[in-house]
Amino acid sequence: MAPNKHPNPSAQHTRVETVLRQLNGEVTSLLEENAGHLREINKLQSELNVYKRAYGDIESERDKLEQLKIEVEKKNMDLETRLKVSEFVDSPGSDCSLTHI
Predict the structure, then answer these.
(1) Where are the domains of the chain?
(2) Quick one: CA dihedral 16, 20, 22, 23, positive or negative?
(3) What Cα–Cα distance (Å) separates residue 52 from each residue in 13, 16, 58, 60, 70?
(4) pLDDT top residue among 4 and 45
(5) Between 16 and 91, residue with greater pLDDT
(6) What is the pTM of this model?
(7) Phi/psi class of residue 93: alpha, beta or left (left: φ > 0; alpha: ψ in -120 to 50)?
(8) CA distance linking residue 63 with residue 61, whole number of Å
(9) Out of the domains of life, which is the source (predicted)?
(10) 89 exposed, middle or buried (CB, 10 Å; 0-12, 13-18, 19+)?
């Protein structure tokens, strides 16, 4: 008796169905994982936006404070200069009068 060169079509069909079910299960699993990853990405993006806004607010506040510091330092230098002039005018032996300044 010659060996059967054609496999049983029913067995082939069953094997194909089994492989297709496995692939379908794997695809479904991958899609579910992907959906979970997308939810996590959206959550992280929202959190990142909150931090970016907070950082931007802090940067803005820092810039304002830096400008205020510069202004205060300038006023302080002006006051120190005035104090030195006043001390010079009020020093003994000075013939300057504050009314002339």
Answers:
(1) 22-88
(2) positive
(3) 57, 52, 10, 12, 27
(4) 45
(5) 16
(6) 0.51
(7) left
(8) 5
(9) Eukaryota
(10) middle
For residue 33, the one-letter residue type is E
For tokens 């205060």, the residue is: 72
Q: Which of the 8 DSSP states describes residue 98?
A: G
How many angstroms separate the CA atoms of 38 and 26, rounded?
A: 18
Report pLDDT digits (tens) over 5-64: 666 888 898 999 999 999 999 999 999 999 999 999 999 999 999 999 999 999 999 999
Tokens read off for 40: 């996590």
pLDDT for the residue numbered 90:
72
Q: Which amino acid is at 16?
A: V
What does the pLDDT read at residue 95? 60
